[in-house]
Write a structure and sequence with these properties.
Length: about 425
């Protein structure tokens, strides 16, 4: 019996042994039964021993919401450990506003929020559409190619270059840094293989972008992220480490998550051909399909908080200092909150009612931008290529944090 079989097994003892932090279960796409069991039998579950130390798992939709809205008790603070189950080594930590509590969180978030304000999104729509069309027109027909590289990475990298107003021809550099930020250094195909190597690469990133940040600070304010950071009261004199962390946050935020949803949509619609047909028959379903795919894919697997005081959650006693992990992948498959959650249903009544963007004060800044990019992709894709065939299994990323897809072979019928 493998440890996984054992964990799924039904004895009371095995329940205590469930450890959902193992990145392998996400790479193998084997996490569903573990969380189904936890939601049913032990929804706020204590794991006394893992490679990341002891931690609580919060697995039901309503309990995840309860943690998200109670930032007074459940802290995101870098000093207490930040937002991932794995602590960043103290000597190499990189704070950013996702790893802060109010008031500093709110001050810094406010600086960058205008980049995704409705008026700015409207301004960006034309350029996003133009670039999307170009990428789609260049795709080969009648031959197998990698959707991740040709479409998902290309489109999200273009978006990043636009958000940062980064030199266009060097834009894949941003993709590389994003991969470095989220890499699990123990994975053989990771771009870096130790925390030291990661830190060295991110130092180079902050130096390169630091030059642009300083230049933008001397120019009149503009609508790109570097200019906003350079002019914002709360962000114009950032310590180097914090600058590094903030860039990492904005690069990953605007990149990997949307990238993996672009790929996940092709996989999900191939998995549910009836829903794919429904979409072709009625393209006005694109916006609700986009939200449903974001739920179904759940691009961020978890967030972590640290209890600032003793508290109670769903009958469990949580102690000050405990690590509390909210598993979005599980909350989004909770049948008490979402009907028939293991099925993709593109015309759900309330498709935006999911946890993929989080909730509360840290709710994703870029959620409307991500939806916009995905909507445009499908508006341009459907009339050109009504069928994109998934030709083989996806290669998934070894990570318990970003639900990533490294490659997906696809074919557009000739
Ligand atoms: C499908 C795409 C995306 C998903 C699933 C996603 C998911 C998330 C999640 C789960 C959080 C944390 C929420 C919480 O703790 O409650 C978050 C925060 C954040 N996201 Fe996104 N995101 C996406 C796209 C984007 C884009 C396009 C941007 C950038 C423009 C972005 C920027 C951010 C930032 C800056 C934060 C930190 C917010 C804060 O701490 O106040 N995200 N995102």
């Amino acid at each position: 019996m493998t440890p996984l079989d054992d964990a799924i097994g039904s004895t009371a003892n095995a329940l205590g042994a469930i450890d959902v932090s193992d990145p392998q279960i996400y790479q193998d796409d084997a996490w569903y039964p573990l969380f189904a069991r936890l939601r049913r039998e032990d929804p706020v579950h204590y794991c006394p021993e893992s490679r990341y130390g002891p931690y609580w798992s919060v697995t039901r939709y309503k309990d995840i919401m309860a943690v998200e809205v109670n930032h007074q008790v459940y802290s995101s603070s870098n000093e207490l450990g930040g937002i991932q189950i794995e602590d960043q080594p103290k000597s190499m930590d990189r704070p950013s506003f996702i790893r802060m509590d109010p008031p500093r969180h709110d001050e810094q978030r406010m600086v960058v929020s205008p980049v995704v304000a409705p008026a700015n999104l409207q301004n960006m729509e034309g350029v996003i559409r133009e670039r999307t069309i170009k990428v789609l027109e260049d795709l080969p027909r009648g031959e197998t190619f990698d959707w991740v590289d040709r479409v998902s990475i290309e489109l999200t990298t273009m978006m990043l270059a636009t958000l940062f107003d980064y030199p266009w021809d060097d834009r894949r550099q941003l993709t590389y840094w994003s991969d470095v930020v989220i890499a699990n250094v123990n994975s053989p195909d990771a771009p870096v293989h130790s925390e030291e190597e990661r830190f060295a690469e991110l130092t180079k990133m902050a130096q390169a972008l630091g030059v642009l940040y300083q230049q933008r600070g001397q120019m009149p304010p503009r609508f790109d992220l570097l200019s906003m950071l350079a002019h914002g009261e709360a962000t114009k004199n950032m310590p180097f480490r914090e600058f590094m962390g903030t860039l990492g946050l904005l690069i990953v935020g605007g990149n990997d998550t949307t990238r993996n949803t672009m790929t996940g949509a092709i996989m999900a619609l191939n998995e549910f051909p009836g829903e794919y047909q429904k979409l072709r028959d009625d393209p006005s379903l694109i916006p609700s399909m986009v939200s449903e795919v974001i739920r179904y894919v759940t691009p961020v697997i978890h967030m972590r908080r640290t209890a600032k005081e003793d508290t109670e959650l769903a009958g469990k006693q949580i102690k000050k200092g405990d690590k509390v992990v909210i598993w979005y992948v599980s909350g989004n498959r909770d049948p008490d909150a979402i009907e028939d959650p293991d099925r993709l249903i593109i015309d759900r009544a309330r498709p935006r009612q999911h946890l993929s963007f989080g909730f509360g004060i840290h709710r994703c800044v870029g959620n409307r931008l991500a939806e916009l990019q995905l909507r445009i992709l499908w508006e341009e894709l459907l009339p050109r290529y009504p069928v994109i065939e998934a030709m083989g299994p996806a290669r998934r990323v070894y990570s318990n944090f970003i639900h990533g897809i490294r490659s997906l072979p696809v074919r557009i019928p000739a």
